[in-house]
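call fold(seq) -> tokens
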Amino acid sequence: MSVRKLKPITPGQRFRVVNGYDAITTDKPEKSLLVPNKRSGGRNSEGKMTMRYIGGGHKRKYRIIDFKRDKAGIPGEVASIQYDPNRTAFIALLHYQDGEKRYIIAQNGLKVGQNVVSGKSGIAPEVGNAMPLSEIPLGTIISCIELRPGQGAIMARSAGAFAQLMARDGKFATVKLPSGETRLILANCLATVGVVSNSDHQLLVGGKAGRTRWLGRRPRTRPVVMNPVDHPMGGGEGKSAGGHPRSRNGIPAKGYRTRSKSKASNKYIVERRKK
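ret:
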């Protein structure tokens, strides 16, 4: 994968850095796996705006992704690596031997024509294969991890994300997550071997405000320029300094821990993420 810096033939392209899309093999999605994706514009069912700074953006169709990888023991051939407008990672279209087609999150190094498989036993820990944490060798780099058996992957799914399997003890496996947190996860939860694709995503530069609008994000007003009635950090003459950074509801930001001390899942966290 690579990125390209564009020549400044327009002001909006002067600082633009785009994806090389070397890994992408087709620009036509699989129609049977597309569903409509309606935008809310930040409004609730009553039509009231409940989330600010959302609206506009390019139309998208949602690609149905197989996060559960529950087609056990049946090899699937990678037919293509595709772009997905709904996520930062690339996706891979699998053609299974029984004729079914499914999308999965693509891992780095996944090639067209390669076979991937998911299941419990007799599966090699190779890139793209999904297997329980109990079957994966210690020290392996993994991604797309379940938190509860059968739930489907919910952790380490974005571009370039990965976790590491550190240890196993009884029915739990110790996993170091992308945030730096070390956590106990049930060993019968599935995970996919390899790093999530498109790791160069963090190097991209929009180049102009309009490109953010295309993603459906409206301009965000900084709290310090608001009035006191609108935000705790608003008001004052000119550029007023001082005060503590806090949310619109008065909850301190930048280092203040909001996690409940009595949360049930605290006992599964071995080491908290670094600040």
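The first strand starts at residue 3 and ends at 5.
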